[in-house]
Predict the structure of HTH psq-type domain-containing protein.
Amino acid sequence: MTKKINDYVKVLIEDDLKTEMSQREIAIKRGVSKSFVNKINIKLQKNISLGRKYGSVRK
């Protein structure tokens, strides 16, 4: 089972990306995978919300 990453960590990753820190350094610093940091970076570039869509509930 994958670990749940809370919104606070996502905001910290967003701040690190804005300071032009490398994705590899962010992944090591925050304890997440490089691909996760890359996905957040892509969402930020496309101005997509980092959270879930309204009404998308797991059953």
User: Anything to note?
Assistant: Residues 25 and 34 are 9 Å apart (CA to CA). The chain has a mean pLDDT of 88. Residues 7-18 form the longest helix (12 residues).
